[in-house]
Write a structure and sequence with these properties.
It is built from 13 helices and twelve strands. The relative contact order is 0.14. The protein has one domain: Alpha-Beta Barrel (TIM Barrel). Helix 1 packs parallel to helix 12, helix 2 crosses helix 3 and helix 4 packs across helix 5. By secondary structure, the chain is an alpha/beta fold. The strands form three sheets. It has an eight-stranded parallel sheet with strand order 3-4-5-8-9-10-11-12. The radius of gyration is 19 Å and the shape is globular.
Length: 333
Amino acid sequence: MDKRNLGSDGTRVSAIGIGALSFTAFYGPTDTQKSHAILSAALDLGIDHLDTSNVYGAGLSEERIGSFLAAQGAARHGLFKIATKAGIYRKPDGSNGFDNSPAHIRAELDKSLQRLGVETIELFYMHRRDPAYPIEEVTETLAGLVKAGKIRQFGFSEIAPTSLARAAAVHPVGAVQSEYSLSTRSPELGLVQKTAELGTSFVAFSPVGRGLLTDTPPSPEKAATIPFLQNNPRFMEPHMSLNLVATESFRRLAADLGVKSSSLAIAWLLHQGDHVIPIPGTRSVDHLKELAAGAALKLTPADLDAIARALPVGWAHGDRYSVSQWIGPEKYG
């Protein structure tokens, strides 16, 4: 597996990581055994970057990673470069609240470290911005955690390029995480460029479009059983059926090239900049192998042109988030 820089301090990680939201039931049923199988296969494939959060399954994702590491004994140290997040909490009504206060950040990090069973992690994100705290103040809090030795780098999830620039003026920002794929091109309106300029990694979640860019995209019936997708515009009718039709040309192109669609989607992302690191999630070892294969694909200019013809900018029907799902991410453009 090729390596890429994570941040600007010389840390190297695998060209793709694993988004560990899939270690919970967010996209369908799973269990600890299946999550551990993914982690074992990741090591075999040379994947060493894990991305999780304190709110993924209310800590369950971190616990499953922690139990896998504990089973490795002394060998667990250094197996993975782990990233986790804080800044989101669940309100009594089930909606999200945001808290970037120093007390909340420190307390949640300590809980994450305990669940993971480690004393330090590679990367700690603010999962969402809390407008009550200027980003400069939040950056100072995060920089303090670096000085304390609890984290090596920090980052922000779903922020605008202007917010990144403000934070980077206080302390180098290791990574910004946002949705980026052939389905979602909005980061090209400044965030991909600003991260490259500042030496900040762009960590791309949902790199296969929540399944749309695979050989087995979710059917409308399947999407209707998954709470997040059943309320997401791209997976609601009439958009869902239109998107399945729109992505058929991409699947045909992948077949013509002799690769899986998910592999091709990953390869395309990796060709968008040396600082781009996709973090696909999966509950299947076979699918993980498809995703990892994308890191080895070298696309020619002709291949990239063919992909652009199959899925031109703006092809997707429906917004990437619903009104309620847009609460928290910063818009820009």
